[in-house]
Every structure is written in structure tokens, then in C-alpha cells.
Design goal:
The complex is a heterodimer of chains A (399) and B (307). Chain A is 74% helix and 0% strand. Chain A has 18 helices and no strands. In chain B, helix 1 packs parallel to helix 7. The chains are: A mainly alpha (399), B mainly alpha (307). At the A-B interface, helix 6, helix 11 and helix 13 of A face helix 2, helix 4, helix 5, helix 11 and helix 13 of B.
Chain lengths: 399, 307
């Protein structure tokens, strides 16, 4: 069943929803990266909650005009308009008043959402409207989706994705360094507007599948997860798109296999698992990598100190040091140094002496700053320089 | 008016006012510390906490659910902190990851488990049911002095009242350390104040208020009351004491006006049914914030040019 869903063999509508969710996920992941890098991630939360009054007003308007209140393009248009108003409120509050951006986001989010709830209760009591089912916009619902709606979502996802590809260069510049972008002739205001417009478009397209409460997750989670895997913007955007797309695809397929698995939350949970994997396993920035790095560093410090102790014929008591050196074949089980151990110890001691000399010499100030008790001097100086150091060292060694 | 008002409107009105003030008070400090969205995060994760408590105990009863919600709020705050430190992620994004994932988990749990027999759904979690908290034994103003009748009062009312007392007590007792560490954390640390602990306890108090209020009025009021009254109050004054006074006033005004507009507004306009009180209270608080942002005496950033 799941395999069939993943390979798009569960009927026409399920296939369209899966494709739509995948495209939406890719576009959301890529756009979200620009928001995240520009430290604007939570603005999308305000945008998504601000869609609700628009949905309600559009429904009321369409019913009053005698049409079908559930006409999806109309609802999406209404949601886009009210989300844009919400976005303007956030930027007005955070630039023209003393409120910080997070407070502006929270205020707009809660007030617009509250107004939307009021409108929903108005719709519930409207005698002319049939049972509207607008609540499905809160958490998304693909059950009983019309073919036309699925096409709109798939097309919308593709369109947003194309726009991201087109606008990637100016958006990268603005997200990283707005002033530098301005100095190179990029119109910062308009690029910013375009970035927010893309987030808005994704929110509107995603309303039906993911729902307005959770769509923000698709904009944030893939981007944050992707950031663990690379430091290059182009790659992060690509990886975020891949994670978002995979989440949309797997999530939509999973939800098609069972009747009571709502699509939006499943997609978000899949994305969150990608995030958890990235947090733990990513090379470089991941937790596992950090732990391994720490352990390797600790082992190097212990072995180095152990070798120095061996060379100076001091006893070693520390348990970890003994274990590490025994495992490396530097000492025997009874703690006596092996042949290899003695050789390495002598080298370590020589290195340490050279370092001492180097650090006492003001001419080597730059190199001396690199001293951490672990770096072999050969990696920093040329053979000539070391030979010169050794000449100064000789009489000391002889005595 | 008297009889109907006491039994049908007085309890929800009082609960609304208490909830609004209990959220607005810690909201003042969260706003100044730039943690305004903590309230948003907490009110989202209350849902998984409540669902888990329901699955564990198998019944809809108040205390396990409050505990579950409180635990979920604490787990969220800790997770955000861990992800922020371990992953070196900016706090806003870390928050976004945690609360959306936990909310999604809560919805999934709710859909998967058999909760059809009990009143527990996402809509309820979002906008509560303030209107249904009526006091059937309240037969007029005299019942307020009648012990037998008072026993029938909705349990949310005393719970919210004691939460408000607890919040007030916390802020009163820790007034100086709170104020110091909010405005100048470095200076507070040099004085030897445990700023980390103070910050955490503020979040815990906010979570307590959020969880208790959520039970009565739904999460949308909680988010609105954490942010809108303090933000509006911030436009009115530069002094913390006065800001808190203003925010309490705004919170009360939002609760009263919102409740009245939701209950009677549609009747005035010729409609028959009331609209959501929770939504209306949030809307009114937004209108108040809008007016304050347009006309408040201290609406500009210090040093910024007027206009």
C-alpha cells in the first residue's frame, strides 16, 4: 500500500496531491532557506495565521454574490490579500513603532487569527451558506479534494519553485548582507518584498494540503535541517528543497494509505524526522560529529601527555591515558614502554623542547601563537628553520 | 438582566478577565526580553500535552491534563534551548522547529486515538468555549452569597482566579530581580543575581498562566493576551510600573468589550447567534494595539525621528 502510494499508483487524485505536496515542499524548503538565513523565519508564522480572515471574508463575499462559497481560487485570493495586509502590519509595527519584530509577529498572528475565528463562527450561523467546512484550512485536508483544486496546487507549487530559481541570486545577497547587496545595485526593498511574496505564495498554495497552522513548519524545518549539512548557500538551498520535497512526497503518500492520517501533520512529522537526523548525524555541525571530535581531541591530549611522561621517566597513573597508550601499542600491559613507545616519546619530548625554544624567541611570534600542546612543529616550520632551532637546542640536549 | 446576567454572563466574563490579566502580566516582561513568541510556542504545544495526558489516564479530567500541558510546555522550552545551543541555531528558528513538530504530533495522536466519545478536538484547543462556562445555580446577585449555589460555579473560575493570584504574587515578590535582569542582564549578573534561573522561572510562570487560561478560553486568547496588551501599554509610557498598569487595564478592557461584542454585537446588528468570544477578545485587543500604535505618546523608538 505504502509502496503503491510512493510510486504514485493510488488513483488520480492521490497522485496529484502527492505531486502537489512534493512541489510545494521543494519550493517551501528553498524559500525558507532565504528567510532563515535572513533571520526572518517566524515572519512566515504571522503570514500563515493572517490568511484566515481572508478565507472567511472571501467565503462570505462569494455566498453573498450568489456563488459557491467553497470555490478554491476565490478563497486563495482572499487569503493572499489578508496575508499581505498582515505582512504590511508586521513591517509597519516593527519599523514605525518601538515594538520589536517578534512582538509585531505575535500581535498580528493572534489578532488576525482571532478575527478569522470570529468570521468562521459568523459563517457557521449564516443561514444561506451550506456547512462550509472551512475548518479544514486550519490543519489541511486532502480528503475529497476536487481535481481542479489538486491541479491548482500542483501548478502553484511549480510556479513558486520557478520564481525561486529565477530570484536566487539577489535573494542570497540580501539575506546575507543587505548593505552589501544595496552597494552592488540590488534593489533591497523589492527583493525583500519578493522574498516575502514567495513565502506568502507558498502559504496560500499550502493552505489546502498542510493547513495554515502548520505551513510555517515547511518553511522553517527543511531550511534549518539543511543548514547542518553545508556552509555554502547554493547547496543549503538545494538540500532544503530536497528535504522539503521528500517530506511532502513521503507525507502525502503516508496519509493516502490510511483514512484518518491528516496530510499536514504527517508531512510536518516527516520533516521533523529529517531535522532530527540532521541534528544528530550531519558531519561537522551535527551532535555525533561534535562528540567524536571531542573524543578524538581528548585522546590526543592524553596520549601526548602520556608520551611526555614516558620520555621523562615519570610514572603514569591516569586510567584513560594508560588504556589509550596500551591500545596504541605504546606501552605493555605492565606499564613499561615498548620500542615504538620509546621512539614516539623521544620525538614528543624533542618537539616539546623545540616549541619551548620557539616560544622564547620573539622572531617566531606568529608561529608561537599556534602553540596548543598538540601540533607537531614540523607542520608549521620548514626543515631549515627546524634545523636552526636544533642547533640552539644541541648544547642543552648534550648536558 | 440581573438573573440571566449572573448565571450566563458573569462567570465567563470573570474567567475572561482573569485569564487576560494573568497572561498580560508576565507578557510585559517577555515583551521587554524579546521573548514575546514564547507564549505562541507554549500555547501550541499544550495540545500534545493534553492529548498525552488523556491517553495515559483515559479520561477528560482537569488536573492530569493541566499537568500534561505544563510538562509539554517545559519540555518545549528545554528542547528549544537544547537545539539552540547544540545546533547553534537562532532562537526564532529553533522555536519554529520545536512547536510546529510538537503540534503536528499532538494532532496526529488525537486523530489516531479514539476520542470520539469525549469532547476533545483541535478546534476546542484553539478557541476554547468561553460561552459554555455558565453557572446554572446562579439565580441572581443574591446567589453570590449563597454557599450552596457557589458550589455549582464552573471550576475554571476559581482555578483561573488562583492562577492570577499566583502570577501576581510571583511578580510582586520577584519585582526587583525581574526588573533588573530584564533591562540589564549583565548588570544583574554582576550583582550576583541568578539571571538564568530568573528567566526560567518567568517562563514557567508564563506557562502556568498559559496552561490554566488555555483550559478555559483556548490558545488564541493566550497568545493575544501575552502580546497585545503589553505591546499597547509599551506605546503609552516609558516606565515599567505604569506599563504594567496600562497592560492590566487594556487586558480587562479587551476581555469585557470582546465578550460583550461577541455576545450582544450580532443581536444589535440584527443577527441571531453570538460569535466566538475568544476570537472577539483577541480582535478587540488588536484594535486597542492599533490605536495605541497610531496615537500612543511613546510609540516611537527612543531617539528615532518622529513621523
Amino acid at each position: 500500500m505504502l509502496l503503491e502510494a510512493l510510486t504514485l499508483q493510488l488513483g488520480y487524485n492521490a497522485t496529484l496531491v502527492t505531486i502537489g505536496a512534493t512541489l510545494l515542499g521543494i519550493a517551501a524548503g528553498a524559500t525558507g532557506t532565504f528567510l532563515y538565513v535572513g533571520k526572518r523565519a517566524l515572519v512566515s508564522d504571522a503570514i500563515s495565521h493572517a490568511t484566515l480572515p481572508g478565507v472567511g471574508l472571501a467565503f462570505i463575499a462569494m455566498v453573498l454574490l450568489g456563488g459557491d462559497g467553497r470555490f478554491l481560487p476565490g478563497l486563495l485570493l482572499g487569503s493572499a490579500v489578508s496575508a499581505a495586509i498582515g505582512l504590511l502590519c508586521v513591517s509597519w509595527l516593527s519599523t514605525r513603532t518601538r515594538l520589536a519584530e517578534d512582538a509585531a509577529i505575535g500581535a498580528v498572528l493572534s489578532v488576525f487569527f482571532g478575527l478569522g475565528i470570529v468570521l468562521l463562527t459568523v459563517i457557521q450561523t449564516m443561514s444561506s451558506g451550506r456547512q462550509a467546512g472551512l475548518e479544514t484550512f486550519l490543519l489541511g485536508s486532502t480528503a475529497g479534494m476536487l481535481w481542479n483544486d489538486a491541479v491548482i496546487i500542483a501548478a502553484g507549487g511549480a510556479l513558486v519553485l520557478a520564481l525561486v530559481v529565477l530570484l536566487r541570486r539577489p535573494m542570497t545577497l540580501v539575506a546575507f548582507d543587505a548593505e552589501f547587496a544595496a552597494s552592488t545595485g540590488v534593489d533591497v526593498r523589492r527583493t525583500d518584498l519578493a522574498m516575502m511574496g514567495l513565502a506568502l505564495a507558498i502559504t496560500v498554495v499550502g493552505l489546502k494540503i498542510v493547513g495554515l497552522i502548520l505551513i510555517v513548519a515547511l518553511l522553517i524545518i527543511p531550511a534549518v535541517a539543511a543548514r547542518f549539512w553545508s556552509d555554502r548557500m547554493g547547496r543549503v538551498v538545494g538540500i532544503a528543497g530536497a528535504i522539503g520535497g521528500a517530506s511532502g512526497w513521503i507525507g502525502a503518500a503516508l496519509s493516502a494509505t490510511a483514512p484518518d492520517l491528516p496530510t499536514g501533520p504527517i508531512i510536518v512529522i516527516v520533516a521533523a524526522s529529517f531535522f532530527a537526523v540532521s541534528l544528530l548525524c550531519a558531519p561537522g555541525r551535527g551532535v555525533l560529529a561534535a562528540v567524536l571530535r571531542h573524543r578524538r581531541f581528548r585522546a590526543r591530549v592524553h596520549v601526548r601527555q602520556g608520551l611526555l611522561a614516558l620520555a621523562q621517566e615519570q610514572p603514569i597513573y591516569e586510567g584513560l591515558t594508560l588504556r589509550l597508550m596500551r591500545r596504541a601499542g605504546l606501552i605493555r600491559a605492565d606499564g613499561v614502554a615498548t620500542e615504538a613507545g620509546r621512539a614516539k616519546a623521544a620525538r614528543a619530548l624533542l618537539d616539546e623542547r623545540r616549541w619551548q625554544l620557539l616560544r622564547a624567541d620573539p622572531r617566531h611570534e606568529a608561529a608561537a601563537a599556534r602553540y596548543d600542546g598538540l601540533t607537531p612543529l614540523e607542520t608549521l616550520l620548514t626543515a631549515d628553520q627546524i634545523a636552526e632551532l636544533d642547533r640552539a637546542l644541541k648544547p642543552e640536549v648534550a648536558t | 438582566m440581573g438573573l440571566e446576567f449572573v448565571s450566563l454572563s458573569l462567570p465567563p466574563l470573570l474567567i475572561g478577565i482573569f485569564a487576560a490579566i494573568a497572561c498580560a502580566l508576565p507578557g510585559n516582561f517577555l515583551l521587554l526580553r524579546r521573548q514575546a513568541l514564547i507564549g505562541d510556542a507554549i500555547s501550541h504545544v499544550v495540545l500534545p500535552g493534553i492529548v498525552l495526558a488523556f491517553l495515559v489516564t483515559g479520561a477528560v479530567s482537569a488536573w492530569p491534563m493541566l499537568l500534561g500541558a505544563g510538562a509539554a510546555a517545559l519540555v518545549t522550552v528545554l528542547l528549544i534551548e537544547i537545539i539552540r545551543r547544540v545546533g547553534r541555531i537562532e532562537p526564532g528558528a529553533a522555536m519554529g522547529v520545536v512547536f510546529t513538530a510538537m503540534f503536528a504530533g499532538g494532532v496526529l495522536l488525537l486523530e489516531q486515538s479514539d476520542t470520539s466519545s469525549v469532547h476533545l478536538d483541535v478546534q476546542h484547543a484553539l478557541y476554547g468555549n468561553l460561552e459554555s462556562l455558565i453557572w446554572l445555580d446562579g439565580l441572581g446577585w443574591a446567589s453570590l452569597l449563597d454557599w450552596e449555589a457557589l458550589k455549582g460555579i464552573p471550576p475554571e473560575l476559581p482555578r483561573m482566579f488562583f492562577t492570577l493570584v499566583f502570577v501576581c504574587g510571583f511578580i510582586f515578590l520577584l519585582w526587583r530581580p525581574l526588573k533588573l535582569s530584564t533591562f540589564d542582564e549583565g548588570f544583574a549578573r554582576t550583582l550576583g543575581l541568578p539571571t538564568g534561573l530568573i528567566g526560567l522561572s518567568l517562563v514557567v510562570v508564563a506557562a502556568t498562566a498559559a496552561v490554566a487560561a488555555f483550559d478555559a478560553v483556548g490558545s488564541i486568547i493566550v497568545i493575544a493576551m501575552f502580546i497585545c496588551p503589553p505591546a499597547a501599554a509599551r506605546m503609552m509610557t516609558n516606565r515599567l510600573e505604569r506599563q504594567i498598569g496600562w497592560s492590566v487595564g487594556f487586558a480587562t478592557l479587551s476581555a469585557v468589550l470582546g465578550y460583550v461584542l461577541a455576545g450582544y454585537g450580532p443581536l444589535w446588528l440584527g443577527g441571531q447567534n453570538a460569535v466566538s468570544a475568544a476570537g472577539m477578545i483577541a480582535t478587540v485587543s488588536g484594535v486597542i494595539l492599533g490605536v495605541a500604535a497610531l496615537a500612543g505618546p511613546c510609540r516611537h523608538r527612543a531617539g528615532a525621528p518622529a513621523g
